[in-house]
Amino acid sequence: MKNWLPQYLPYIRRRPLSSRTLALSPPTVLALGFAGLIVLGALLLLLPAATTAPLNLLQALFTATSAVTVTGLVVVDTGTHFTLFGQLVIAALIQAGGLGFMTFAVVAVISLGAKIGLTQQKIAQEAMSQTSLAQVGQIAKAVLLYSVVIELAGILLLTLTWYRELGLATASWHAVFYTISAFNNAGFALSSDSLMPYAGNIAVTMIISSLFIIGGIGFTVLIDLKKQQRWRLLSVNTRIVLLSTLILNVIAFLLLWILEANNPATLANLSVKDQALAAWFQAVTPRTAGFNTLDYSQMTDASNVLTLLLMFIGGGSLSTASGIKLGTFVILIMATYAFLRRRDDVTLLRRTIPNAQVLKALALTFVSMALVFLAIFVLTALEKAPFLDIAFEAVSALSTVGLSRGLTGNLSVPGQCVIIFLMIAGRLGPLTLAYFLATPKQRKTRYADTKIQVG
Amino acid sequence: MKNWLPQYLPYIRRRPLSSRTLALSPPTVLALGFAGLIVLGALLLLLPAATTAPLNLLQALFTATSAVTVTGLVVVDTGTHFTLFGQLVIAALIQAGGLGFMTFAVVAVISLGAKIGLTQQKIAQEAMSQTSLAQVGQIAKAVLLYSVVIELAGILLLTLTWYRELGLATASWHAVFYTISAFNNAGFALSSDSLMPYAGNIAVTMIISSLFIIGGIGFTVLIDLKKQQRWRLLSVNTRIVLLSTLILNVIAFLLLWILEANNPATLANLSVKDQALAAWFQAVTPRTAGFNTLDYSQMTDASNVLTLLLMFIGGGSLSTASGIKLGTFVILIMATYAFLRRRDDVTLLRRTIPNAQVLKALALTFVSMALVFLAIFVLTALEKAPFLDIAFEAVSALSTVGLSRGLTGNLSVPGQCVIIFLMIAGRLGPLTLAYFLATPKQRKTRYADTKIQVG
Ligand SMILES: [K+]
Ligand SMILES: [K+]
Q: Any transmembrane segments, and where (chains A, B) (predicted)?
């Protein structure tokens, strides 16, 4: 576990491991865990008690993968095709996949033997300065505690919102399901039109979007926010994640409102308040919640292209969100700015980002783009669908967003396999890649340098 | 001019400049030269003698920009809308833009005061070891000499091919125009359907594709090829460019043939020989010639997606082609491979590529992708056209390819301006960016390092 993801936490100090190291590499453990969960989930969903109509093996695997990877793409309608038991299985898979992944990632980072020393080195010093199994357990507990508290708040608020409309029993079950689905950025809904009926509902829009924004912002940011009282005491990483979340959401909100304002199929016929709510929800959901209150296939192409970018970016590191992550995106922007200003160091908020970090961000982005491209190429060869629908579906799957322009239900068998692969790669890929980048193997012979023409 | 593009030539040794340096930076000189050529060209095309029908200012600017940047996208038909004089102006603009750019780039590299020491340090040692104005002139002469010899061969062969069909006068004029357009990777044609009538013509297919492949492979590769007799004596850069050209062309050839074999609108009804010729031509033209013998809007979406990638990659550095360039693409592939193998040094052909080089390749690619994305977003907001057509047009313009699915003629006025901007950015951008990357300005204060979470 040595050298495991040092870039995940600022200013890590390495110490000798005081406990035994695992024989398997963390990415292998993670992949095995996910595979096990998916197979178990698929088997449970195949039980007659889980469904109201026949479900084939591929559909079960697709649904389980979508739940465990917290994607939310569905080949059958969650609300009608599954019984309450089936929906419970899906909720459990989401919770295990989303929370489990976040916990694993945080624990893996901590078990480096590192002290989480954010800029002011005050956070969690005692709890995290050693790596005994007991300590690992403590960290995992902290992650779970945070999550449970936030989820309980969500369940309470949503039950209060829905109990008049649905009655207490249904309201509380919906509240549980939607809270789990939202906090874990899964985007599974109990109706086939996601949250479209609530496009103008302030409570639902705000509670659900708050849940997935908090879930998608990352554990280290949350813990930093709780411990520090003032903005200037927050770590650079925390400030960057918060600032970029705010800026991206506001820009997306304004752009989507402008782009859809005259679209009669979406915003044109809504009141200003409802327009604002719908624009807000569609602005924040692509990174990477996956609920929607508008129909993406009815939105303008420009809104869809903007959504493609937002989906590709995703949320914070060590969170329930996927994508290349906010930190990666910010580094790319600042590196580009530095290049264009002919500076050889990349800076932000009066800090220098080491070149190795920039290289990692670029590598991660390039691999993601290569994968998206390859997937789009294969899907265009397999599916009869407009290019935009295919590109949207591929990016949505790789970033485990779950938004769709309607292609998911019409996918061919090989097409479904491609999407399953993308969901798994999208959820496990960045962490695995970061591990590879963080733990290089030295090769034995070193060749002489050469120069290849660039540009 | 110090530090000008050291990565353009392998193993550059820096020497003090023996002659005066320019007061303007090379990118500025290049931009001013291009702007001057475009304005001059547009004015000439606006002369009544140049056209057979009215031409507005934007159309003239678009045509001149397309010619000078050797793109080949057209808003009016070159063969019918322009008189012989107008076509001569266009050919002159292509020659000046294509050859001028290549000469400038090579001279700029040489005027560093560098000896072109390819691996064996044998090439052009005497001619290029100093940087007096006389030497610069000599280098420019060498570039021009190469180009003229190749173009004369092209003109001769095409005249022989066409004189029975068209008569000597027309055949020789067509030969001149198509040779200039092909060698400079411009893709301008004298008929609105490009070279579609010659889809099954071996001579035309092979002569034209040879011309643009040679033109797009780059001057340093050509000079290395001429001086060295054996494969192993060629520089790593030369071998990489040749190998990647061969591999990409063969893969694209096979994929396109497979993807179009059953498409009745393209290959299905052709003989095997004609299928091979058409697949070959469409495989090699996207990087970045721009002629076509099949209709891209009739080809499968998968073929179009493959073409998007090929267009984005482009040809060799210091050539008449654009795109991110073969060297950049190969570095990206090898860097990804190294990351996935958890190696911290990127190697190919038993040589190590320095990390700084990798970073430049990634930066250049990222900036290109950001520009393509921004352009697609703006164009989807401006134009009523399928997403694939818009993406195709944007990439084609930025890589100065000139292929189109038919959108060019239907572009709105702001849409035409976007495409004009992309063509100029695509031609000048990579060289300018490479200059920025190669000549960093040190900032005065250096901030402390920080770590931002990635992945
Ligand atoms: K999701
Ligand atoms: K071209």
A: 21-45, 57-76, 88-112, 143-163, 198-219, 240-259, 308-340, 361-382, 413-438
pLDDT, position B6: 42
Domain carrying residue A154: 6-438
Percent of chain B at pLDDT > 70 equals 85
- Rg of the Cα atoms in chain B: 22
SS3 content of chain B, % helix, strand, coil (to 5): 65, 0, 35
Q: Evaluate whether residue A453 is within a structural domain.
A: no
Distance separating alpha carbons of residues A371 and B219, to the nearest angstrom: 33
Residue with tokens 């090699």, as numbered in its chain: B284
Surrounding ion ligand 2 within 5 Å at CB are B 72, 185, 187, 290, 401-402
**Which member of A358, A387, A447 has the closest CB to residue B359?**
A358
For B348, phi then psi, to 5°, come to -155, 150
Cβ atoms of A209 and A179 within 8 Å: the answer is no
Residue A444, in any domain of the structure: no
DSSP state of B354: P
How many domains, in total, are found in chain B? Answer: 1
Choice between B113 and A251, residue whose per-residue pLDDT is larger: A251
Instruction: Verify whether the Cβ–Cβ distance B453 to A358 is below 8 Å.
Output: no
- Partner residue opposite B361 with nearest CB, options A10, A11, A454: A454
State whether A237 and B453 contact (CB < 8 Å).
Answer: yes
- B449 belongs to a structural domain: no
Q: Which residues are bridge partners to A441 per DSSP?
A: B343
| Residue A215 near residue A103, CB atoms below 8 Å | no
Closest CA to A316 of A179, A395, A215, A180: A215
A9 has a pLDDT exceeding 70: no
- Identify whether B451 is part of a domain: no
Closest approach of A12 to chain B, Cα-based (Å): 10
Q: pLDDT band for B384, please (50, 70, 90 cuts).
A: very high
Token pair belonging to B168: 């000597």
CA B423 to chain centre: 11
Task: Tell how far the Cα of A400 is from the centroid of ligand 1, in angstroms.
Answer: 5
SS (H, E, C) chain A: CCCCCHHHCCCCCCCCCCCCCCCCCHHHHHHHHHHHHHHHHHHHHHCHHHECCCCCHHHHHHHHHHHHCCCCCCCCCHHHHECHHHHHHHHHHHHHHHHHHHHHHHHHHHCCCCCCCCCCCCCCHHHHCCCCHHHHHHHHHHHHHHHHHHHHHHHHHHHHHHHHHHCHHHHHHHHHHHHHHHHCCCCCCCCCCCCHHHCCCHHHHHHHHHHHHHHCCCHHHHHHHHHCCCHHHCCHHHHHHHHHHHHHHHHHHHHHHHHHCCCCCCCCCCCHHHHHHHHHHHHHCCCCCCCCCCCHHHCCHHHHHHHHHHHHHCCCCCCCCCCCCHHHHHHHHHHHHHHHCCECCEEECCEEECHHHHHHHHHHHHHHHHHHHHHHHHHHHHCCCCHHHHHHHHHHHHCCCCCCCCCHHHCCHHHHHHHHHHHHHHHHHHHHHHHHHHCCECCCCCCCECCCCCC
Closest CA to A1 of A121, A105, A126, A134: A105
* Whether residue B21 has pLDDT greater than 70: no
